[in-house]
Amino acid sequence: MNRTDRLYALVEELRAVAPRPRSARWLADRFEVSVRTVERDISALQQSGTPVYAETGRTGGYCLDRAHTLPPVNFTPSEAVAMAVGLHGLAGSPFHAAAATALRKLVAAMHADDAARARQLAGRVRLAAQPPAAEMPRVLADALSMRRVLRIRYADKTGAGSVREIEPLAFVGMPTYWYLVAWCRLRRSVRVFRTDRISSVAVTAEVPPPRELLPGDLDVPGDRMSELSLA
Predict the structure, then answer these.
(1) DSSP string for residues in 162-195
(2) How far is residue 182's CA from residue 179's CA, in Å, rounded to a whole number?
(3) What percent of the chain has pLDDT over 90?
(4) pLDDT value at position 227?
(5) Would residue 213 count as lying in a domain?
(6) What end-to-end distance do the CA atoms of the chain give, in Å?
(7) Residue 193 bridge partners (DSSP)
């Protein structure tokens, strides 16, 4: 079992017995790894936001807060595969890594029989290769949610490079490229940066002041843009 599968299996094991704890030794025997490996895995889950906590004492161990986890969900195999097909088209976008994680969580929360049928169905789907898309660095993909000033190294369309401090405002997705819209402190105005031209990103400790992105800030016809909805 690779580490990714083991992390999800750990969550499912803890969810199944919650609120009762499982000791590190019990989990190590269950997954045939060392206690130290279990402790590293639990630490990784906690750092990712999974609500795992430790109970001390002779009968203690690791517990999972069931109120913050998904119960088995009624996704059909076809719905799960449809999500995987949609994920295929997100390569190079700011949300590719997050979507892949979300898909794994949903499959792990499905009933076992449905998850097995979804994997069988996925194995019968073939997708034509897409043009290579550079994977967006995670720190850049998280630019909006982090709410920090970023220091970037950027090359414009002529290849001229510059170092800028920017305040991220929005992402714009086009058929070929993704763009980060930000307040550029060098130019003292809103600028649009093609993400594949950003060669390095550093996160500063500074929280930017609140700014609103106005319709006129984007040099794109309004009828070509649509706002993303979760409804």
Answers:
(1) EEEEEEEEEEEE-SS-EEEEEEETTTTEEEEEEG
(2) 10
(3) 30
(4) 67
(5) yes
(6) 37
(7) 180
